[in-house]
Amino acid sequence: MAAASNASSPQSDYIQHHLVHLNSLGEKQTAIADFSVVNYDSLFWSIFMGAIVIFVLWRAAKSATAGVPGRFQMGVEMLVGMVADEAKSIIPNETSRRFVAPLALTVFLWVILMNTLDLVPVDLLGWIFIKLGLAVEHHDPLYYHRILPTADLNVPMGMSLGVLVLTLWYGIKIKGGGGFVKGLFTAPFHGHGVVGLLLVPFNLLLNLMEYAAKTVSLGMRLFGNMFAGELLFMLIALLGGAWAGFNGASIGLGIGHVLAGSVWAIFHILIVLLQAYIFMMLSLVYVGLAHEDH
Q1: Candidates 24, 217, 250, 262; catalytic one
Q2: N or C end of the chain, less CB within 10 A?
Q3: Quick one: which of 148, 171, 287, 264 has its CA closest to 218?
Q4: What does pTM read for this prediction?
Q5: Which is the catalytic residue, given 23, 39, 203, 225?
Q6: CA 220, 82, 117: angle at the middle one, nearest 5?
Q7: Half-sphere exposure of residue 28, counting CA atoms within 13 Å on the CB side?
Q8: In this predicted model, what pLDDT tens digit does every residue of 108-151 receive, in sequence order?
Q9: Which pLDDT score, from 0 to 100, does residue 127 have?
């Protein structure tokens, strides 16, 4: 009975195997945090999507004309205008906006492309690798490598750490090194004399917690939504895998698989865009807050 209770189901094995990264270990990572492990799949797809964004924006800038714009130029100009307007309403310093607004646009498109990879059928790449002789089914990590970078916590948290560095940089740049450090110890609770000294540790702790909470929530929000979406696609794929023939039950499972997959894919497009927009807006808000005094 003990052996039977410990045995995992094929469905569980399927999902667990699909959560394995193509990493430097060559197997599933067991430690919760191991900074020596490199997830090659997440690196490849995130860099690849970033390169596409940079190329598209470069082509748009190079082919831009002062005359009647084409559809491609109009689309890019609309995106640029949208991000510029959001940055103008959030970040008061014009000099800062010249760098932050293009960066926010790049991040917005980058996250969209990375999130869109979740719409690729779960087993498609594995099937392609097998047909090309690059992987052996059920035995090679390449067969089950994960295509969605934003479902790897390392990627969203790395991006949120980048936003943290940018926030600290602008906080120091706008307020000066002394003013920035002073703000850590004297805000948000203000006091004079002995009261001010007593409030110093509370202010410092609260400010450190604020920076940590912003960073963690920014990365975890993107990761959580995309991981949940990826997991749901796997469950829908299992529903299709149960379609074994043309009897009544199998046909029902097949129809359910197609309908569920289609509906979730359409709805997931909204999630893809929404999560990218939220990440961009919160990044702008955090940088904008760095320009303000408590």
Answers
A1: 217
A2: N
A3: 287
A4: 0.86
A5: 225
A6: 45
A7: 10
A8: 999 999 999 998 887 788 778 878 877 766 556 566 678 899 99
A9: 78
